[in-house]
C-alpha cells in the first residue's frame, strides 16, 4: 500500500530515524545496503517497498536503496519492521 506513505509520513519517519537513531540508519547501510565502510547515513525516504539512504563512506557519498522483505502496510508496520531489521543487523555483527 504505497498510498499509506504520503510524503508527510515518510518525512516524519525519516526525521525521527535521523534525529534519534542515526546509528541504526548507518547499520542498515552497512548490513542491508552492502556498504560495510559506512561512516554515516541518513534516511531520505521510506515507502512500502523500501527506504532510500544517503551513505557516506571514506571514498564517496552515494544513494543506497534497501528493499523490505514485504510491502509495508502502514507507519506501524514500518516501525516494527525497522526495529526487527536493526535487531537482525546487530546479530549479524560487524
TrEMBL record:
Q: Where is the signal peptide?
A: none
Q: Give the source's domain of life in one word.
A: Bacteria
InterPro entries, per this entry?
A: DUF2470, Haem_oxidase_HugZ-like_sf
Domain DUF2470, residue spans: 10-85
Q: What is this protein's name? A: DUF2470 domain-containing protein
Q: What is the lineage of its organism?
A: Bacteria, Bacillati, Cyanobacteriota, Cyanophyceae, Oculatellales
Task: Name the SUPFAM superfamilies on file.
Answer: FMN-binding split barrel
Amino acid at each position: 500500500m504505497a498510498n499509506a506513505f504520503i510524503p508527510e509520513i515518510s518525512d516524519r519517519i525519516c526525521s525521527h530515524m535521523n534525529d534519534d537513531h542515526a546509528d541504526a540508519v548507518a547499520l542498515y547501510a552497512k548490513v542491508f545496503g552492502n556498504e560495510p565502510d559506512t561512516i554515516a547515513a541518513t534516511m531520505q525516504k521510506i515507502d512500502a517497498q523500501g527506504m532510500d539512504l544517503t551513505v557516506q563512506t571514506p571514498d564517496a557519498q552515494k544513494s543506497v536503496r534497501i528493499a523490505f522483505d514485504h510491502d509495508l502496510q502502514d507507519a506501524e508496520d514500518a516501525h516494527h519492521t525497522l526495529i526487527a531489521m536493526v535487531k537482525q543487523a546487530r546479530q549479524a555483527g560487524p
